[in-house]
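Repro case for the chain-ordering regression, as requested:
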Amino acid sequence: MKCDIVLAGVGGQGILSIATVLGLAAVENNLYLKQAETHGMSQRGGAVQSYLRLSDKPIFSDLIPSGEAQLILSVEPLESLRYLNFLSPDGYVITSTTPFVNIPDYPDTEGILATIRNLPRVVAIDAEAIAKAEGNSKSSNMVMLGAASPFVELPLESLEQAIKTIFSKKGEEIVAVNLRAFHAGRAFTEQTLNKLK
Amino acid sequence: MNKKLLLGVEAIGQGAIDGGISGVYAYPGTPSTEITEYIQENEVAIGRNLHRQWSVNEKTAMEAALGMSYAGKRTLVCMKHVGLNVAADVFMNIAITGVNGGMVIAVADDPSMHSSQNEQDSRYYGRFAMVPVLEPADQQEAYDMTITGLDLSEKLGVPVMIRITTRLAHSRSGVKLADLARKENSLSLPADPLQFVLLPSNARKRYNKLLGQQTEFLQLAEQSDFNLFVDGIDSSLGIVCCGIAYNYFRENYPGVSPYPYVKLSQYPLPEKLLKQLEYQVDEILVLEDGYPLVEEQLKGFFGRGKKILGRLDGTLPRAGELTPDLVATALKIERALQEELPGTLVNRPPALCKGCGHHDTYRALNEVMEEHGKGKVFSDIGCYTLGALPPYNSIYSCVDMGASVTMAKGAADAGLFPSIAVIGDSTFTHSGITGLLDAVNEQSNIVLIIGDNESISMTGGQDSSALGRIESICEGVGVLPEHIHVLESLPKNHEILVDLLKREIAYNGVSVIIPRRECIQKLSRKKRNIL
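-- result from build under test --
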């Protein structure tokens, strides 16, 4: 098993909570893991990325070589395009469609979404709307994680357990809403893939 | 055996605790900050009540660490690369005084300048001071080397530097930990009462001692488990890979490398291993993150002998961090064509947070400076440096900690009017106070704006060292009380700030205006923790 994921977003959007869940689940399954994060200046609303590598064999580089990522998992549409050079020829882009506009020259949203839809393998998901429908728009990151989960060879129970672990401090209700968000995202991807078949 | 997922920096923190330190001393700076934060939150560190408060700057941190070492205890001091410039005076001299309790100096370099003003390579400082340098390739080595470094330092009686770069600092992986943290040392004074007295007569003796130890440092590097020679079947090329570059090299050869190589993680350069490699191969490729330090040494001035490839001959770019891709190219490994980036992609630079008090300061400052023209505002290092970018474009300098104050003074000396400095509360206490004294002593015509967000914000909201005491410090330095103003930085105070700025620009002397409001990020973190 080997899975390289580029996590993308904007500083402050909390992509690291996604990485933490995947990391916990990987450790529970005795996988090797390396996860390079962005700390510092870019966390102030700049483009941030995390390189997450899981494998059943030792991993050398902390950075993913270009053209080798199985997944680009982005919580923002423009950011999903920034790391396309990392994507492997059979890799998938999983992205939220809700733009985060904090720069004056943010490109035309329709154009961005059209570019995304034209990618050969993509799951574009309105994570915020789904999260809201499940009870809390703040859990859109778990929708995104759920949407990515069919592509990651980690047992469903391990991912669920990891979500419980990281949200347990905030009470049962928050845990439940994040689990629902996760499953809604997962269902969305499964439906998308079924349509393609 | 206990295994933990740790960032490279956290592994150093854990190693220091398990290596028996009695205290960590540091000033925050990306990518080194989390070493100290990890120790601050660690149960063993809390239980032992290890020293773990932030210092005012890197120089005071290293000097306090030296005091702890003088008293026989083990200590860790950490900083980012440019922080070592601030501590360079004491650093160079610790090599000569030596240490009593073990001392590890952890320095985190930032090649590619992700969050820095330059990409200087701290290994040069290690070589300059002639002390052993350890450069981990991964998180496990970062942990192991911190423990080894403390032992080594105590055994040799010199400080040991650990040098890491951003990618290792901020990358997480599993680390096997020792079962128990070593006991702290007990209090003991140096055996030689003159050891720390660098009067010329004694300094010469100490310096000769350090020179005499160089052979031993070299032998230790040659025997070190962290340095390896690995043979290969293809002798057309030999590789020297330093620190994290080893990972990028092995990423390209996850099984067996066809080329012989030296994995280099302990300096001074292990002569025997490198000669063994050189003897066997036609050419040598040097992979190192940072400056071409090893490459220069292997090449020599005249470049005679076998060809050395690396950053100096263009095999690798001269600037910027290494990546597995760059290393693959240097190894002439062909890669599949990658997806092209769409043309619509635009950069997303960092920006001041919504609701941050610095917005209010820059709005008022821009309004006031309109009549004076551009180029008259100096600034410094912190979140407010983002005021150099659109939409504000308010500031015209960011050089080193505290330089806004002194540059404004020098420009005023040259006749620039008005001459304004914008600095943050923590940068001011780090290195701005002495510059302000210079200005006061000459009654320089400057207006100093201290944007006080009551926190060290860019690095994650650490405690500012003179919380609520900025104005009394200014008064103590000699700024006249009627020219020190504090106000809350809020949109509703815009007119007041504009008027104050105008009035103090008109005053011929030193004025200080302190717009104050807690960092919005720190405030929201507090609220989240309460909820």
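Ordering looks correct now. DSSP finds 20 helices and 18 strands in chain B.
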